[in-house]
Amino acid sequence: MTTTVRIATPDEVPILNAIRTSVRENHMTLEQMADYGITPEVIANLLRTTGRAFIANVDGVDAGISIADSAEGNIFAMFVLPDYEGLGLGRLLLAHAEAFLHATGVASAWLEAGAGPGIRAHGFYAHLGWQSDGLMPDGQLRFVKSRAALTQIVAGG
User: Which pLDDT band, with edges at 50, 70 and 90, does 152 fall under?
Assistant: First the structure.
């Protein structure tokens, strides 16, 4: 198995959206994302300005994504295709997003994980050092991590 991670370009927003809308947990359609103001144009603009997206490729298949926004200091998205879960892609993609935020000098980072009991992402983030910070108004669980605790890998640019 060969795994690579690349920085996504604004032209690759369709790949980001295809992976985002293919997950089982915290699934959303493009229409549901648009209802939250998350459109292809918004994501492309984020990548042109304060954001960076990473795409994990396994043996020629784009299998997972992470997106971080330095202006907000958050991990905006982190998703892996169901057939590629359990291969360490989530950990790898999160490390790249954390390293990007660390390199931009954010004081602390935050992310939200789906609402409801039994969400696997909650345990995943806690295991990787993210601290629960209560519920967001939409019911999602907020996690935080200090700049010092963020992964500091070389994220390929």
Answer: low
Provide the residue ranges of all domains of the chain, joining segments of one domain with +: 3-149
Distances in whole angstroms, Cα of residue 6 to Cα of each of 58, 64, 87, 118, 146 = 11, 11, 17, 31, 25
pLDDT band at 155 (very low <50, low <70, confident <90, very high): very low
Give 11's Cβ-side CA count (13 Å radius).
0
Tokens representing residue 52 in the block = 């960076």
State both tokens at 90: 């989530």
Cβ pair 101, 51 in contact under 8 A: no
Q: What is the pTM of this model?
A: 0.89
The model's pLDDT over 31-71, given as tens digits with 9 standing for 90+, comes to 888 888 889 999 999 999 999 999 999 999 999 999 999 99
Expressed in angstroms, the distance from the first to the final Cα of the chain is 24
Locate 35 and state its tokens: 């209802």
Phi-psi sector, 67: left (phi>0), alpha (psi -120 to 50), beta: beta
Residue 151 DSSP label: -
Architecture label for domain 3-149: 3-Layer(aba) Sandwich (3.40)
